[in-house]
What we know:
Mean pLDDT: 79
Largest sheet: 2 strands, antiparallel
Structural class: mainly alpha
Number of domains: 2
Radius of gyration: 22 Å
Order of helices and strands: EEHHHHH
Strand order of the largest sheet: 1-2
CATH architecture of the largest domain: Orthogonal Bundle
CATH superfamily of the largest domain: Winged helix-like DNA-binding domain superfamily/Winged helix DNA-binding domain
Low-confidence stretches: none
Shape: elongated
Helix content: 55-70%
Amino acid sequence: MIIDKIRYNFYEGDKEIPKQKTVRVSKRIADEIKESRRLEHNLVNMEHYHCRPLFDENDKLIEIADERDPYCVYTQEQRDREIRDFIDSLTEIQRRRVELRMEGKSITEIAEMEGVGYNKVKKSLEQVGVRYLKEMK
């Protein structure tokens, strides 16, 4: 029998915080647990983005490969539009910095490109983040 290790949360008594331990289980059971965790993670993400999960008549999650839920597509497109509008509302400097970060540039790289200090770029991006959290609730 092939043995695999997984991390598992154990609750003791009335304690709300579980102890995480590594346990040894068969490969088959480990695979089942991992698949269950993957599906749960996907459902949480769908809920977070307001997408309705699709289930068949046996309450099994339907895996969608090419076809996406129209409601989910609409919601994502609407969110993308809101984010684009938010970015367009920024000052030219803030917008350029956000777009460079979205392209994968580091704060240090942006500061060097602009010939300004690291803290100036960092503070500017933090202000954008605070404004985003206020406006995009």
